[in-house]
Amino acid sequence: MKFICPVCKTAGDIPEHEVSSGQSATQTACPKCGTGLSIEHATGRAQAQRRSAEQDLLENREASRRRSKYAESSVLSVRSQDRGKNDYLAIGVFTAVLCALIAVGVYFSLNIKQSAWNRPIETISRMVDEASRYGKTIVGQFQKERQPRNRQTRQAQRHVRKGYEHYKENRLEKALEELNLAIEIHPQNHEAYFWRARTFIRLEQDDKAIADFKTVVNLNPRYSPAYDNLGWLFMRRNDYDESLASLSKSIELKPDNGWAHYMRGRIYFKRGDLQKAVENAKTACNLGYKDGCGDVKRYESDKTKSAENG
Questions:
Q1: 159: which of 42, 138, 147, 181 fits an S-S bond (Cβ 3.0–4.6 Å)?
Q2: Which domain holds residue 24?
Q3: What whole-number distance in Å separates Cα of residue 175 and Cα of residue 201?
Q4: How far is CA 104 from CA 51, 123, 125, 135, 230, in A?
Q5: Is residue 107 in a domain?
Q6: For 28, phi and psi rounded to 5 degrees?
Q7: Collapsing DSSP states into helix, strand and coil, what is residue 271?
Q8: Tens digits of per-residue pLDDT, 12-35?
Q9: Element (H, E) at 37
């Protein structure tokens, strides 16, 4: 049964064996933009479903909000743990300078001549000058070592931001140019790889997208959106084992991810494990992902029929 996505106008096709005669509509996802769709059997009309909070891999999440999705991106925000690291560094520098002042004071106290005691103001002034010069040397060296890395990080962030803006407007080649520059400047920037992978999905280059998402989780193993995307891409390839592994990792990191439970339920259903399909659909429904509620009824109905026939 063919349909047209109302969001990106991409044509899709649902195999006849997936169209249940007992249902008035089939739930699926657009192969281009990933929007959840409900396909009416009688008319073939496609309607977009409500999106989940974690469904940034299905990209229209950013268009539904008044501010840019990217404004929430971890790579451009100052996280508390980053501020904490800077605080520790500042304390370390202050401690080093303080120790240097004490050391200089002890040194001069042990080595000044007896006649110097007759010139206390001159001696103290010289000690302060020496300590000040030494402290400035330490701070200057520290800043010199830190500056290049900070500059590279800021430059990479600017390119990621520009790449994301091009991505939003579907200027995909421009998006790739900016994201490639960000990765070249700062190869550890996991969100540059993430948005480049999302761009590859739109360009229908799934192999490259999977490779970039794998790089994301290698750089940041706790970045759950990358696991969501991998789970969805592997499901499209009917690689259910890899899909389940990725979605289960996402759920492990974020148990309240209703979309991941919903998708995992669909995969269990495709594999014929109706019990786990029902369990995951119920969890998705309880977490507020409404598509899961519809699947609960569908899976339980199939489960009952299977028990009666078995």
A1: 181
A2: 2-69
A3: 13
A4: 64, 12, 12, 11, 58
A5: no
A6: -155, -175
A7: coil
A8: 776 666 665 566 776 777 777 777
A9: strand 36-40
Question: Does residue 169 lie in a domain region?
Answer: no
pLDDT digits (tens, 9 = 90+) for 251-268: 999 999 999 999 999 999
One-letter amino acid for residue 173 of the chain = E
User: What pLDDT, in 10s, does the model give residues 218-250?
Assistant: 999 999 999 999 999 999 999 999 999 999 999
Task: Decide if 45 is inside a domain.
Answer: yes
d(CA 183, CA 190): 9
DSSP 50: P
**How many structural domains comprise the chain?**
1
Helices marked H in 78-189: 80-111, 120-168, 172-185
Which residues contact residue 60 at a Cβ distance below 8 angstroms, ignoring those fewer than 6 apart? 7, 33, 35, 51
Kindly write down the DSSP assignment for every residue of 190-259, as one continuous string. HHHHHHHHHHHHHTT-HHHHHHHHHHHHHH-TT-HHHHHHHHHHHHHTT-HHHHHHHHHHHHHH-TT-HH
pTM for the full model? 0.54
Residue 46 phi, psi dihedral angles, 5° rounding: -105, 130
Nearest-angstrom CA–CA distance, 150 and 144: 10
Q: What is the pLDDT of residues 141-168, one digit of tens each?
A: 555 444 456 888 899 999 999 999 999 9
The per-residue pLDDT for 161 is: 95
Which class for 177: exposed (0-12), middle (13-18), buried (19 or more C-beta within 10 A)? Answer: middle
Cβ-proximal residues to 104 (8 Å cutoff; 6+ apart), any chain: 127, 130, 131, 134
Quick one: average pLDDT of 99-107?
69
pLDDT tens-place string over residues 184-197: 999 999 999 999 99
**Nearest CA-CA partner of 55 in 284, 222, 300:** 284
